[in-house]
Backbone:
């Protein structure tokens, strides 16, 4: 049996194309499983997984929890709000106390970039990064790639535009690493103040206007403006942002060829996407959420094989 090259999933940067293909292939099998009348398999029976969330989440947290239950794992959920973190307990002490309860795997979201990498050098359990600050969100990139493949097939040579707040987005960075490894041409579009300079080193070109980006791409992955991470004013107002970078259904209908519109959620309706675009036939936003469960089942299943 094929296996992953690492016992953790900390990011897409440090995994191989083979790892990505193995996860996507395994996810396809799990998607078939979760669409059966009996959606549960015994693959992770006797494995205990802690979902440790130091930052808010709806999709990722519920998706991991459901993936764990579908695999018959035992799960516990920790949220920093209402925990002893508020009394000053450190990240390492918190996680070591969770592990003392015989936990095998940690799924962690944290606002500090590198927090899961730090833990991976200190503890024995497998770690899955469920989003570390502005750094990486590997399972989001994997479910995005899976959803794109379902819609447009092999991603080699396909044109993917990532549009919006690239600077603060862990989804953007993980998408770039993942899609480039799968052979796609990835470009970004957004206000110059929200485009990080290191993109040139990654071989990612910048498209100036959203109209050009939509006309160029096969898939537009539209990102949220992350006001909660913005310490400065990067553009004059949300109204101005939506005028210059917002996407509506009329723009999509006017394109010469159909494109796929994606969004990792949560959506700022009326800012980066109008409601008529988000709810249109162009968008596969809820397919992404559905696929997230299968992709996370694949990740947890494959990591458990490494023990
Ligand atoms: N896409 C995503 O990470 O959403 P949540 O923040 O709700 O988990």
Residues:
């Amino acid at each position: 049996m094929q296996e992953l090259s690492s016992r953790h999933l900390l990011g897409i940067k440090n995994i191989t194309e083979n790892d990505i293909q193995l996860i996507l292939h395994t996810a396809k099998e799990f998607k078939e499983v979760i669409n059966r009348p009996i959606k549960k398999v015994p693959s992770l029976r006797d494995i205990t997984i802690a979902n440790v969330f130091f930052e808010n989440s709806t999709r990722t947290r519920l998706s991991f929890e459901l993936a764990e239950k579908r695999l018959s794992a035992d799960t516990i959920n920790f949220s920093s709000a209402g925990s002893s973190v508020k009394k000053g307990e450190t990240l390492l002490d918190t996680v070591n106390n969770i592990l003392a309860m015989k936990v095998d795997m940690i799924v962690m979201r944290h606002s500090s970039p590198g927090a899961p990498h730090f833990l991976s050098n200190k503890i024995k359990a497998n770690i899955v990064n469920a989003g570390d600050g502005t750094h990486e969100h590997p399972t989001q990139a994997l479910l995005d790639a899976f959803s794109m493949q379902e819609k447009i097939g092999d991603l080699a040579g396909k044109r993917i535009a990532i549009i919006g707040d690239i600077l603060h987005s862990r989804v953007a960075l993980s998408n770039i690493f993942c899609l480039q490894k799968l052979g796609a041409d990835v470009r970004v579009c957004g206000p110059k103040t929200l485009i990080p300079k290191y993109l040139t080193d990654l071989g990612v070109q910048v498209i100036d206007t959203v109209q050009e980006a939509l006309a160029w791409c096969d898939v537009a992955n539209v990102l949220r403006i992350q006001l909660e991470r913005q310490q400065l004013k990067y553009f004059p107002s949300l109204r101005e942002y939506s005028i210059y970078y917002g996407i509506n259904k009329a723009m999509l209908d006017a394109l010469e060829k159909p494109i796929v519109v994606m969004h990792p959620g949560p959506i700022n309706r009326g800012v980066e996407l109008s409601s008529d675009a988000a709810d249109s036939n162009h968008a596969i936003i809820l397919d992404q959420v559905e696929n997230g469960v299968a992709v996370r089942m694949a990740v947890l299943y494959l990591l458990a094989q490494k023990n």
User: Anything to note?
Assistant: The beta strands are 48-53, 74-79, 105-110, 126-132, 159-163, 185-189, 205-206, 219-222, 260-262. The first helix runs from residue 17 to 34. The pocket of phosphoric acid mono(formamide)ester is lined by residues 57-61, 131, 140, 264-266 (CB under 6 Å).
